[in-house]
Amino acid sequence: MVAKKRNTLRQKSAVTASKKPQEVLNDIEMDMGEDPKAFLHQYKESKKDKNLSRQQMFLDQIKQKNGTDPSFAGISKSAMRRRKRKLRDDLKPKMGELLTSLGQEEDLKEQFEDNFKEEGVVEPEPQKKRKNEPNIRNQKGAKALSVQESERMKQVLSNSSFQQNTFSALRDVIKMQNR
């Protein structure tokens, strides 16, 4: 017994295509363009283009990471840290600058001269450095330092020269520290 041959879908479509007039097929081809398969293929990048695009993406990522400040572009992390540390140190107040700014005030000079004429010039004694100071890093030392500072603050506030002319007293203390 021989198996009956079945019609396949390809055969059916071929029969229907042959039955359609040739003009309809030409119209369809015109609508699709010259090469209907041209839209089926995607653009393929060459290896060289891929490598260039990867390299550019990598460089962009590096620039983006260092994008916090454009002045630090292309500089190592340690160099950035050194520059930032230097900038921080430059921002800190310096005792010499404070002394010069206090010395430039004419009002303070007049008050300072008046006070010296009235009172004798009293130079404060330089403080000796204590080697066994309490350590602020532990609880006991921090408590001891806070007690010392509160006592010292009371002495400063009760000082007559500080009460009469605050800025001249500050200038005297700064001069002593710079010696």
Automatic annotation (TrEMBL):
Pfam families, per database record: SLX9
Keyword terms of this UniProt record: Nucleus, Ribosome biogenesis
GO molecular function terms attached to this record: G-quadruplex DNA binding
Membrane-spanning parts: none
Residue spans of biased composition, Basic and acidic residues class: 109-120
GO annotations of cellular component type: 90S preribosome; preribosome, small subunit precursor; small-subunit processome
Localisation: Nucleus, Nucleolus
Record bears the keyword Nucleus: yes
UniProt-listed GO biological process terms: maturation of SSU-rRNA from tricistronic rRNA transcript (SSU-rRNA, 5.8S rRNA, LSU-rRNA); ribosomal small subunit export from nucleus
Family listed: Belongs to the SLX9 family.
Function: Involved in ribosome biogenesis. Required for normal pre-rRNA processing in internal transcribed spacer 1 (ITS1). May be involved in the movements of the replication forks.
Protein name as it appears in the record: Ribosome biogenesis protein SLX9
Species assigned in the record: Zygosaccharomyces rouxii
